[in-house]
Design brief:
By secondary structure, this protein is α/β, with parallel strands linked by helices. It is built from 29 helices and 44 strands.
Length: about 1000
């Protein structure tokens, strides 16, 4: 990195002090600071020395780099340019208050002149003078500049100034940022050549999400430095001051501290400088992994631009209080990260935090589970006395895996019981499928023979878990013996019974355990020591020596641990060929690259393409699905295959494989993952028809029946036959290899077209085969079909699925559907992907509801499910239908369709807000926590999304009526926080940013077509 990562700052007060300047600078150097940022009182263009000679000599002697903070637009009134070009300057004038103002005479000048850098003449008149003045300072030893008040100076002039400085002084260090630079202006500086931006850390309260949002937006512009600008804050509170200094060092890629702060806390300053150098390389993602209400702020930082590509990462913990606190649950932090990571030092991650402590924890990627494909069958062991049953979660008796993501807690329950009144013990066993050793967790006993325990898989891929129980004979003895003692009926034989159990355990033990139990047996020889028989120490030793009689293991349940994007992702679908401004010019992969910043700015993380393979000519469809296509009509991309190739080829007009590779790389730089459509269908021109005719079912007249989905007809498509003799198994392998081909090209996510029309055994085999090699592969089922088939596809391997959400418009329909998905069997294996529209489906609700309807459907999809998808044009509220059908008029499936992405009336702001909230709040990253609440209006849907730790809760209120205002009384779920109906709770409006409190359980809301939704966060206290 070319810029100094540790910078001390000072102003004229440094020279006014009694202490020699060199001594203060030496201490900064010894603390690890590399540069001094000088804030002069003298104007850049004034006559005085900007850098006093004593300061320059001291800096040079000590070996620090000297940087100067300047507002280059400020000129003294006597400057020649001000006198010659007064129209290019803004000059403040004043008058004698005692005299009468004479409008015929100009008022005398006062203060200073400010260059009007936006004026056209400024570029040739003023800018060279500024560049000369800056260059002159570098000749005096100045190594760089921080441009103050950059927004007032103007972004275009600043870009030009930086470019000029880079030509003249390529090694100069150039900075800009807060204060005086708005975020939109900062974004406009991307690529201009700045070495760094200064973040807004100085205003951060150490827990609000906006600092992470600023980092996410600006880290692509330039590295961000954190600064404490003013005199030492909380000078009487060294803990708070140390925390702020270290937090600044840990949340940027460099650090600026006032020299007086370094002198006040030299040891902390040295630690901060060292920490700043450690975090200098962490220029990738920053995420907040604890809620704003948690006592400890936890931030994830990576070096890689995208967490999914990172082999390592760090978690920053900030104890915002002055007292020691427990560290956040380590496994919970990993769950919030959502990647297969583990701590380098688990003990340090779990250790309590001292008051005000700032701690950086290193993470490393856990080894994924890679399998050689083979069948495994575990059978229950015969046990005559114990019963293990009703284990949950369990999918179809264990035939199919339960689904979760790495780091997610999986709670397991079972019924374990035996005859009589015997005491039992039980444990949960789990392991990755490539491991031999089980990890055991003791289970908690529940009423009615229930037992419960939990674990978190840390690696991607297949896992197994089961439960086992046994007779706990010594535990049963202690239980009954205690009761007898309490009742005063314990006899000598009861004491002897316990002693015999201890002696038998001693005899079957060895080593230190045998010696320990031997001592206990000697103590119990008199058959009269009740305290010994009931002591916890003896119970622990007996548990270690337990031979677990009548041990019974339950059936093994499979588990697939997938990456976070299998459960939480925001998809954007587009046709690459339509990324053009001219319907006569076919879009390319290069055109898609140009749209990546816009798509990422809306908050999407997955970019999905319909098929990108060559399109056949035979029976090619024309506009609006017409049967006659013109010579320039592009046809449907689902008619796969031509002379240019089939499922492993690219449509020539889109570009080459080199172009595709560049697109994949560019998408990763924008934190986007490319998803492809896997459609098993062929144009009559597909090479397979000639190369493998035995893969098709030919009619007696030599033709092949075209595809149909009544009433729809697809004359341009023919289907393979999976069960033709020549297709078994060659077609199956070829299709599997096509997926592997695209995985080798960098694609790990596949949307599968109509999987319910292909054999289930094929999908079960193929997905298992792919995921055994690539556990991070994700398959989305586009299966708008019967519930049983949709659920079966999920069971046999599909990570997620399209759903009936598209047609659920009313309160009862949505409530019933989500209740089914969150409380019944599908919750363990089925992940609903709520796409608001598709190229095939233009829902009637959107056709008739106008812009309010699009906003309503976006909020529902984005907040009800962790998986949210948008087909391009939705943000523009496109809804023109084929009359009487749920299809788009002038469908993009049959023509190139350019769009004005800034068209008036768009809902880009809503989508961007929703995706920002989804990333900020883990409560919005799953459908499983959805709880419907009472709102007394049938057109208002109201639901809660509790956070994983239960500290706060997201509330969503949506009008389902896009045409009329709706009002309702609603219940605030105070009971979820143990509050009485009359008590208060803090509220944060996540749309407006307002904070307030609700008093009492019953509240009132009004929603209108212009404001059809609210999203609140509630938490106990005066304000959320």
């Amino acid at each position: 990195m070319s810029f100094s990562s540790c910078i001390a700052s000072a102003g004229p007060e440094l020279l006014a002090g009694v202490e020699p300047v060199a001594d203060a600078l030496t201490r900064a150097k010894d603390a690890g600071f590399e540069s001094l940022l000088w804030r002069p009182e003298t104007l850049l263009h004034g006559s005085g020395d900007i850098v006093p000679t004593p300061l320059a000599e001291a800096v040079g002697k000590i070996g620090l780099r000297l940087l100067v903070e300047t507002d280059p637009a400020r000129f003294p009134l006597e400057h020649p340019l001000v006198e010659k070009q007064p129209a290019l300057f803004s000059v403040r004038r004043t008058a004698d208050r005692a005299a009468v103002v004479d409008p015929r005479r100009p008022r005398p000048a006062h203060g200073e002149a400010r260059a009007r850098m936006q004026a056209p003449e400024a570029a040739t008149t003023i800018a060279p003078a500024i560049a000369d003045a800056l260059a002159a300072l570098t000749e005096l030893g100045v190594a760089g500049f921080r441009f103050d008040q950059a927004s007032r100076f103007g972004i275009a002039p600043l870009r030009d100034l930086v470019a000029a400085m880079r030509q003249r002084l390529p090694d100069a260090q150039l900075l800009a940022g807060q204060p005086g630079l708005t975020r939109p202006d900062a974004l406009a500086l991307e690529g201009c050549g700045l070495d760094a931006l200064v973040s807004s850390f100085d205003w951060w309260d150490l827990h609000a999400p906006w600092l992470v949002e600023e980092w996410s937006e600006l880290r692509h512009v330039a590295p961000l430095l954190a600064e404490l600008r003013d005199a030492p804050l909380d000078a009487d509170d060294p803990v708070a001051l140390d925390r702020r200094m270290l937090a600044a060092a840990a949340t940027g890629r460099g650090l600026i501290l006032p020299l007086e702060m370094i002198e006040a806390r030299p040891e902390t300053a040295a630690r901060a400088a060292a920490l700043a150098r450690e975090t200098q390389a962490l220029g990738g993602e920053m995420r907040q992994v604890t809620g704003p209400g948690a006592p400890v702020t936890a931030l994830l930082r990576t070096a890689a631009p995208d967490m999914r590509c990172a082999d390592a990462a760090s978690i920053l913990l900030i104890n915002r209080g002055a007292q020691p606190v427990a560290a956040p649950d380590a496994s919970g932090l990993l769950a919030s990260v959502g990647e297969a990571l583990c701590f380098d030092d688990a003990k340090r991650a779990e250790a309590p935090l001292a008051g005000g402590e700032v701690r950086m924890l290193d993470l490393k990627r856990a080894k994924p589970v890679l399998l050689r494909r083979k069948d495994r069958v575990d059978r229950a062991v015969e046990a005559p006395r114990l019963v293990v049953e009703e284990m949950t979660p369990r999918v179809d008796g264990g035939d199919f895996p339960v689904k979760c993501v790495t780091g997610e807690q999986l709670t397991v329950e079972a019924k374990i019981y035996a005859d009589g009144h015997e005491q039992l013990a039980a444990e949960l066993l789990w392991r990755p499928a490539d491991a031999k050793k089980w990890t055991a967790v003791r289970m908690e006993q529940l009423p009615n023979d229930g037992w419960r325990a939990a674990f978190r898989p840390e690696r991607l891929g297949r896992h197994e878990f089961t439960v086992q129980g046994w007779l706990d004979r010594f535990g049963g003895f202690r239980r009954d013996f205690g009761k007898k003692l309490d009742a005063g009926v314990a006899l000598a034989v009861d004491y002897a019974e316990g002693r015999v159990l201890v002696e038998r355990a001693r005899d079957r033990s060895s080593g230190k355990l045998r010696d320990t139990l031997g001592k206990w047996a000697e103590r119990l020889a008199g058959d009269n020591d009740a305290d010994a028989l009931l002591s916890p120490e003896l119970a622990a030793a007996m548990d270690a020596a337990d031979d677990r009689p009548h041990l019974l293991a339950g059936p093994v349940q499979l588990l697939d641990a997938e990456r976070l994007q299998a459960r939480f992702s925001s998809w954007y679908e587009l046709f690459p060929r339509s990324q053009t401004d001219d319907p006569a010019r076919h879009g390319t992969f290069a055109d898609v690259e140009k749209r990546l910043p816009q798509i990422r700015a809306m908050g999407f993380d997955t970019l999905y393409f319909p098929p990108i393979h060559p399109i056949g000519r035979t029976h090619r469809k024309g506009p609006n699905n017409s049967l006659t296509a013109g010579p320039d009509d592009p046809g449907s991309p689902y008619a796969i295959g031509s002379k240019d190739g089939g499922h492993t080829a690219l449509h020539p007009e889109l570009g080459s494989f080199d172009d595709f590779a560049r697109l994949i790389a560019a998408a990763r730089e924008h934190e986007l993952e490319i998803a492809l459509d896997f459609a098993i269908q062929c144009s009559p021109d597909h090479p397979w028809l000639k190369e493998h005719p035995g893969w098709f079912d030919w009619r007696p007249d030599g033709s092949i029946k075209y595809a149909e989905n009544p009433p729809k007809k697809y004359q341009d498509i023919v289907n393979v036959d999976f069960y033709q003799p020549d297709a078994l198994p060659d077609l199956w392998v070829a299709l599997r290899d096509a997926v592997l081909f695209w995985i080798d090209k960098g694609v790990k996510v596949f949307r599968v077209d109509n999987p319910h029309t292909k054999p289930l055994p094929f999908w079960e085999w193929m997905i298992a085969d792919i995921r055994a090699r690539h556990p991070d592969a994700i398959f989305l089922a586009e299966a708008f079909t019967r519930p049983a088939m949709m659920y079966r596809l999920a069971k046999i391997g599909f990570s997620q699925s399209y759903t009936y959400f598209t047609w659920r418009d009313h309160k009862g329909e949505l409530t019933d559907y989500l209740t089914e998905l969150t409380t019944q069997a599908p919750k363990d294996f089925y992940r609903p992907h709520f796409f608001v529209n598709t190229p095939d489906i233009n829902p009637k609700f959107l056709q008739t509801s106008g812009r309010p309807g699009f906003r309503i459907r976006a909020v529902l999809a984005a907040t009800l499910s962790g998986l949210f998808g948008v087909y391009s044009g939705f943000e523009l509220c496109e809804a023109a239908p084929v009359p009487g059908k749920e299809e788009y008029l002038d469908s993009e499936k049959y023509e190139v369709k350019p769009r004005d992405w800034q068209a008036p009336g768009n809902i880009v702001a809503d989508i961007t807000l929703l995706n920002r909230l989804r990333r900020a709040y883990p409560a919005l990253q799953t459908h499983l926590n959805t709880r419907f609440l009472v709102a007394h209006d049938e057109a208002i849907l109201y639901y809660a999304k509790p956070s994983p730790d239960g500290a706060d809760m997201i509330l969503v209120m949506v009008s389902l009526d896009p045409h009329h205002a709706r009002e309702a009384d609603f219940e605030v779920p105070l009971w979820e926080f143990g509050l009485a109906d009359h008590e208060s709770i803090g509220v944060e409006d996540l749309v407006s940013g307002d904070r307030f409190a609700w008093h009492g359980k019953m509240q009132h809301v009004r929603l209108t077509p212009d404001h059809p939704y609210h999203i609140w966060r509630i938490a106990p206290g005066a304000a959320a």
